[in-house]
Amino acid sequence: MNNNRHSKRKKAFTLVELLVVIAIIGVLVALLLPAVQAAREAARRMSCQNNLKQLGLAVINFSDSRGHLPTSIGQWYEEVTLVEDPPGSGNFRSEDLGGGWSQSSQNPANGGTGFNGKGWIVDILPYIEQQAMYDRIEEKLVRDFAAKAKGGWSLGHNDLREITETQMSSLTCPSDPSAVPTEGLWWWTSRTAATTSYKGVIGDNIIWPQSTLHQEGSLPDCHNTVLNCNGLFYRNSYYEKIKLKNVTDGLSNTFMIGEAVVEQDFHSAAFFSDGDFASCNAPLNFFLVGLDVAGLKDQWYNTRGFKSFHPGGAQFVFADGSVHFVNDSIDHDVYRGLSTRNLEEIVSLD
Fold this sequence. Notes:
Elements: H1 2-7, H2 15-66, E1 80-84, E2 92-96, H3 120-124, H4 131-140, H5 161-164, E3 182-183, E4 192-193, E5 198-201, E6 255-259, E7 277-278, H6 293-298, E8 313-318, E9 323-327, H7 332-339
Parallel strand pairs: 5-7
Antiparallel strand pairs: 1-2, 3-4, 5-6, 6-8, 8-9
């Protein structure tokens, strides 16, 4: 009987066998982890795609209702155009169009709303189920000269802080951990402001022509004038409203809104006219690396391009409402051509 008992005793793992099993499990986990990470990124990219789709549809619905695209209003008087002087020189001087603040169309005394710094995103709030937020902003915007948040003006009004500090999921790319309420954004020096991962496309116009670092775009620098840039959004588009019928290059061949990375661009305050646009003059996914906040702010003109943390490129919604992933290997001339609305380039994403 003793022999039978011994013969039925279960055999245990040896130390070597246990180590082999642990090693195999480790290898399997190492093989599985990239697949899990890829699946998570695919889910984040799909969520980002949906955000862009909803924003694009909101812009189109606004346009159908109002007859023009959503508009932005600068935070101070900028009713100037640019004149090339002498012609063909590439040098531009500003020329006043409105006769100063007293004659400006935005002066409340002339029936205007003041230079309140409202960005185009405010206009589409009712079309993304945020009517109450829109009404609150419209109620509290100060009809006055400046919109500097640190002075408590307009969008910086204390009664609007609950809104301007609330990060909206529809304006947030889940792949960008820096897309959170941030202190110290441009013109919001001492305040925290919600941010946007999605910027209207100004076109391919150069921003701050004194810079030549990775600046390959069109002149003049129109972002701080009322001269129409060659895209769909810029910070003074109230002056000459852009219509979808102006997109003669084709709605399906023209960028409307693209992705940006908040930690790379301190012009990212949501709802704000100087935080909701970027240019395709810089190559797609051009990052400034190794710089702290002060360094990035010092090179602000080199940060205002489109980029994302999605591997290999970034997503754009086109003027027809379709969303596409654009590879960062795209030819730069094609990329620039897709950003303009009426320059008659023969380009497509294909």
